[in-house]
Design goal:
Order of helices and strands of chain B: HEEEHHHEEEHEHHEEEHEHEEEEHEEEE
Largest sheet of chain B: 6 strands, antiparallel
Strand content of chain B: 35-45%
CATH architecture of the largest domain in chain A: 2-Layer Sandwich
Largest interface: A-B, 97 and 110 residues
Distance between the termini of chain A: 56 Å
Shape of chain B: globular
CATH class of the largest domain in chain A: Alpha Beta
Shape of chain A: globular
Strand order of the largest sheet of chain B: 3-2-1-4-5-6
CATH superfamily of the largest domain in chain A: PmbA/TldD superfamily
Structural class of chain B: alpha+beta
Number of domains of chain B: 2
Radius of gyration of chain B: 24 Å
Oligomer: heterodimer
Radius of gyration of chain A: 24 Å
CATH topology of the largest domain in chain A: PmbA/TldD fold
Number of strands of chain B: 19
Helix content of chain B: 10-25%
């Protein structure tokens, strides 16, 4: 039996205890760290699995005959990382060889790193208090997606892509099913011993149409919510039923007239607005950015610390939460990588910026006594740091429908799905495309338009929000891999919202 | 570090376990040491070893599956082979699968430096301290990252192919901001030899930019003559390289496609002059400053390829499958790019601009339209106005929308290239250049 399989094997029914073998290894790291003079230590043992399979259907060279190209990959990674504080400084070391001897050796390396770096520390690390937890937790799923046969997965995607490609005017079709799992054990010198297992799914369906004569190419995606769930989410996504719609809409997109640029009202659907929330609210409210920890790469934030509690971020309709507890959220876990019990907390209340996303070693820098549970490392070999929780926009009044929002627009655009995205290093100036755009004229949704992007400044944009649909229209989309940090790491994160309206936004005509 | 024999043993063992006709093995081993610093002190740092074995199994009727494992016990490797073979047997035939390559003669590259491979805190920390001292002395605040890595890579397959290579790499990059947060400077160095990193030299550059960037003027958006420093050019040529795929070009989806009434025409601008005569862009895996490998993803030997030569589109990226259909020789992916320069200094470029801007680096570049390869992004960490051949004032940041092909088409002058490593475009050799009519579409308040 593989070491990883033995350590992360099936728990006893209803067990809330981590595996005894993992706990023994945790104790090795903690004891060795103390022996070496560390004042804090934690060990993470992790096994990560990424399975990705699907089909690309595209024409052969110089021909209209279609090649059907399958792909199947299943990657596993297993190892451990030890984090310590010694002489007031963090140290970290990691190895793929999970044995007691190697854990002790790597722990000594981590302490050596910390002690060496102490010569160039500005202030000693200070950790917010945390309780000790002994627990085992698994994310919610009905059907383990890894237990579903690859044959069934390929057949589902093959059939959906064939359906898209049924019209010879469609140039190519692409479909894929992605599944990720994280087995993680965390032990700390403060007494925690936590084992967690998370499963995420992300289906993709895409169509491309090309006008060779005029040199135009357009896409249309079926945007499915990536989520913490099992195979049941794939079944609910109805790939087969949505394929004909994508087929028709990609051709409509190809023939769609260009947008007339200028100031317009926007009605943004959740499959699009999630990304605007992510870039402009999610990243701007990260405390490590505001404090300058990310200044060299991801950037800082326009939300400097004196703005906490008083800055008018948007209109009174804007209520935003950080939440690693919500069902199906991609960053949902019970405990973060600091061993902190995760929570839901307000980020923006009635348009006013209230709280940052925090972790244990930074909470005190804005006068907070506890971490908000936003610590994450994307691998056993990565240093845990502040990563985004699920950041979601609360729905509006329950009686407001998307049709009500559209009815209030004289000249505007309805946008579905995400497209091109770019925002500056302080999260002020952004530009977003989309996947599909419909003109709104005189309160009615009209035909598709093309070549749309919009530019705005974050606070101006959120102040321009004057309508949010009710709870029944709330959906949660997200990103399976959001980049940050040096060395770079990626984080899976969800952003829920209802369709929302924004007044007089600058719409551009792209090439 | 994995020795050649260790890598050979792993590959032989995997191939020995395989039952299907095709088995390809990729081995990656890395040891790295890194330090992050911010708020004028070291924040996090680490030392780690990572390894990954990727196994691709293929049936006689071209069904293939891929697995990856990081455990190296016989049991784990056996399980990895079984997983790849099970996936292959369940999968469907891939009409684009190419036969396994037989033994190849790989070129020898010299990009392993033993001192870099052995470097730990005693080598890295002094460079960080030099940057921190520069910040403190000038009452500025710095954040940055230094790293070095030692890498062993290996490939092998059932048809007798085997390759092994070791290389090192290192980089130091940092941002210098004033305490009020109203100005920012930045500098970068990267090299296969850690001894080339110099914190004091680098800090002098970022400090000058930061101190000179206070009270920026807000200029109107519009089309400007712009000097792009090497870091900005490296990103633009990296993105341009992504658009040199032959398949997209021959199937009407690229700026290199020729419009045609016939959707099966495969007409491209290959062989046509699209750029000024002095523009030559090539891949050069043999460049001693680049941390390249002797083979690319196709496992064919890496080689020098000109993508643009004296302004003419000279080659497109043909993978093995597409090349076989087009009757062409496969080409490596456009990586390890070198944009050839001219015998000018940055000061020569500045002196030749009557009115324009100079840009330190670009940020958050994304494709706006895949067909035209129009990109969007922002300027960052130092934009200055040039008037009558002299830098006269700092300027606020801008968003820009422009194709990198257009940037090269409107280039008028270049310096010699230097190595730059960017996060999304890898390591390239890029000069500074002057381009005209660069489309700055809106102001950014970001500093």
């Amino acid at each position: 039996m593989l070491v990883a399989d033995r350590l992360f094997g099936e728990p006893q029914p209803n067990s809330t205890r981590p595996s005894a073998d993992l706990e023994k290894l945790g104790a090795v790291a903690i004891a060795e760290a103390k022996k070496q003079g560390a004042t804090y230590a934690d060990l993470r043992i992790g096994r990560y699995r990424n399975q990705f399979s699907g089909y690309r259907l595209s024409p052969q060279r110089g021909s209209s005959v279609t090649d059907e190209v399958p792909f199947v990959t299943d990657q596993n990674s297993f190892g451990f990382g030890v984090r310590v504080i010694a002489k007031g400084q963090w140290g970290f070391a990691a190895s793929p060889l999970v044995t007691a001897e190697e854990i002790a050796r790597i722990t000594r390396e981590a302490v050596t790193v910390a002690k060496a770096n102490a010569v160039a520390q500005s202030t000693p690390v200070q950790l917010a208090p945390v309780k000790a937890y002994h627990d085992r937790w698994t994310s919610k799923f009905d059907k383990d997606p890894f237990a579903i046969s690859m044959d069934e997965k390929l057949e589902l995607v093959h059939s959906a892509t064939l359906s898209i490609k049924k019209d010879p005017k469609v140039f190519s079709a692409f479909g894929a099913l992605g599944f990720q799992s994280e087995d993680k054990y965390f032990a700390s010198s403060e007494g925690s011993s936590i084992q967690q297992y998370v499963v995420r799914v992300y289906p993709i369906l895409n169509a491309v149409a090309v006008d060779f004569k005029n040199g135009v190419s357009r896409t249309r995606n079926y945007t499915v919510e990536p989520q913490t769930a099992g195979w049941e989410a794939i079944a609910k996504a109805n790939l087969g039923e949505n394929a004909p719609r994508i087929r028709a809409e990609v051709l409509e997109h190809l023939a769609a007239p260009p947008v007339k640029p200028g100031k317009k009202d926007l009605v943004l659907l959740p499959s699009h607005l999630w990304l605007t929330i992510h870039e402009s609210i999610g990243h701007s409210t990260e405390l490590d950015r505001a404090l300058g920890y990310e200044a060299n790469y991801a950037g800082t934030s326009f939300l400097t610390t004196e703005k906490m509690g008083n800055f008018s971020f948007g209109s009174e309709l804007i209520n935003v939460f950080g939440d690693r507890t919500n069902e199906r959220g991609l960053s949902t876990v019970k405990y973060d990588d600091d061993g902190v019990l995760t929570t839901k907390f307000p980020i923006i209340e009635k348009g006013v910026f209230k709280h940052y996303q925090t972790i244990r070693d930074q909470a005190h820098l804005v006068g907070e006594k506890e971490s908000r549970g936003c610590c994450y490392a994307d691998s056993w070999s990565s240093v845990p740091f502040q990563r985004m929780p699920n950041v979601w926009l609360a729905p509006g009044v329950s009686t407001v429908t998307p049709e009500d929002l559209i009815a209030g627009v004289d000249d505007g655009i309805l946008i579905e799905g995400d497209g091109s995205f770019s925002i500056d290093q302080q999260r002020y100036n952004f530009q977003f495309g989309g996947d599909a755009f419909w003109e709104i004229k005189g309160g009615k949704k009209r035909g598709m338009v093309s070549r749309v992007a919009y530019q705005a400044r974050t606070p101006d944009f959120w102040h321009a929000c004057d309508g949010i649909s009710g709870q029944s229209y709330w959906q949660q989309f997200g990103a399976p891999s959001d980049g940050k940090g040096e060395p770079g790491q990626s984080n899976a994160v969800s952003h829920g919202c209802s369709p929302s309206r924004f007044r007089q936004i600058n719409v551009l005509l792209t090439d | 570090m994995f020795s050649q024999q260790q890598v050979k043993d792993i590959i032989d063992r995997v191939i020995g376990y395989s039952k299907l006709p095709g088995c390809e093995v990729n081995v990656q081993w890395t040891e790295d040491d890194f330090i992050r610093f911010a708020r004028n002190g070291i924040t996090t740092s680490g030392y780690r070893i990572t390894q990954q074995i990727s196994i691709t199994s293929t049936t006689a009727d071209k069904r293939s599956g891929n697995s990856g494992v990081s455990e190296l016990t016989p049991e784990a490797l056996k399980a990895g082979v079984k997983q790849a073979e099970d996936l292959a047997l369940i999968s469907h035939p891939n009409p684009e699968d190419m036969p396994a390559l037989p033994a190849q003669t790989y070129p020898k590259l010299s990009n392993f430096d033993p001192d870099t491979a052995a470097a730990r805190g005693d080598v890295l920390i002094p460079q960080v301290q030099a940057v921190l001292e520069g910040a403190i002395k000038n009452k500025l605040v710095t954040a940055g990252f230094i790293q070095r890595s030692a890498n062993a890579v290996g490939v092998g397959n059932k048809a007798g192919l085997f390759g092994y290579h070791t290389y090192t790499d290192s980089s130091l990059t940092h941002t210098m901001r004033n305490q009020e947060g109203t100005s920012s400077g930045w500098a970068t160095q990267s090299s296969v030899m850690v001894k080339d990193l110099n914190g004091a030299e680098q800090a002098a550059v970022s400090i000058k930019k930061c101190l000179g960037g206070v009270n920026p003027r807000k200029l109107d958006p519009g089309k400007y003559t712009v000097i792009m420093e090497p870091a900005a050019v490296a990103d633009l040529i990296g993105w341009l390289g992504f658009a040199f795929g032959a398949r997209d070009a021959e199937q009407g989806q690229s700026f290199l496609s020729k419009p045609s009434e016939d959707p099966n025409a495969t007409a491209t601008f290959l062989g046509e002059k699209m750029f000024p005569e002095f523009i030559t862009l090539r891949s050069d895996p043999f460049h001693p400053k680049l941390a390249s490998t002797p083979w690319g993803p196709s496992l064919l030997p890496n080689e020098k390829v000109s993508w643009i030569e004296n302004g003419v589109v000279k080659n497109l990226f043909y993978d093995r499958f597409w090349a076989s259909k087009a009757g062409k020789k496969p080409t490596p992916f456009p990586a390890n790019l070198v944009l050839e320069g001219q015998n000018n200094t940055l000061n020569d470029l500045i002196a030749s601009v009557d009115r324009g801007l100079i840009v330190t680096r670009l940020w958050y570049i994304r494709v706006v339209q895949p067909k035209t390869w129009q990109l969007t992004g922002l300027t960052r960490d130092g934009v200055f106005l040039i008037e009558n051949g002299k830098i006269t004032a700092p300027v606020s940041n801008f968003r820009w929308n422009q194709s990198p092909a257009e940037v090269l088409q409107r280039t008028t002058k270049l310096t010699e290239p230097m190595r730059v490593t960017n996060d999304e475009t890898g390591s390239n050799m890029a000069p500074a250049l002057i381009t005209t009519d660069f489309n700055l579409t809106s102001l950014s308040d970001a500093v």
